[in-house]
Write a structure and sequence with these properties.
This protein is of the alpha+beta class. The chain contains three helices and seven strands. A seven-stranded mixed β-sheet has the order 6-5-4-3-2-1-7. It is globular, with a radius of gyration of 15 Å. 33% of the residues are buried. The model has no long low-confidence stretch (mean pLDDT 94).
């Protein structure tokens, strides 16, 4: 299998369940992720967010449309001031206990069964998000949540950014 980077598209943040959620979409398809896959993924999102703990309520998601029938939703949420909490869901991928090949039928990935936090394409935003959290939330005297939310990895490819 020859490796190729994929497209990553940065969308504006949304507020879900009291949390501000930055959004990244990953796909090889230049047309982007199908609207019905996006809708189904974000319908499950509230179940994947942790309870508030006093940390500024921010998360980021990576929605990845695989090259086969699979779709993957990775949810990373800031908790305990400087810790990244992970939850995930998948659709259309029987190897991950999905009921069928339907990329809109998302199911939570079972904690403790597969402790995967993302594939090589899905990991692209993590370094940027770590630095943005430190820069806007941890380093200043007062956390700057709007600054963090505005500081997103730019759209482009999943790799080769320096």
């Amino acid at each position: 299998m020859a490796f190729a980077e994929k497209n990553i598209v940065t969308l504006g943040p949304v507020e879900i369940g009291g949390r501000h959620v930055k959004r990244y979409h990953v796909t090889a398809d230049p047309a982007g992720i199908e609207p019905e896959v996006e809708k189904a993924a974000y319908a499950l999102l509230p179940e994947l967010l942790p309870e508030p703990d006093g940390t500024p309520p921010a998360s980021f998601v990576v929605l990845h449309r695989g090259g086969d029938t699979g779709a993957y939703l990775n949810v990373y949420s800031w908790v305990w001031d400087n810790v990244l909490h992970f939850s995930g869901a998948a659709a259309g991928q029987p190897a991950l206990d999905c009921p069928d090949l339907d990329p809109t039928r998302f199911v939570r990935t079972a904690p403790g069964v597969r402790n995967w936090i993302g594939c090589v394409w899905e990991l692209a935003p993590l370094g940027h998000e770590r630095d943005a959290w430190a820069r806007h939330v941890l380093a200043p005297d007062e956390p700057d949540l709007p600054g963090y939310l505005a500081d997103a990895l730019r759209s482009g490819t999943t790799g080769g950014r320096g």
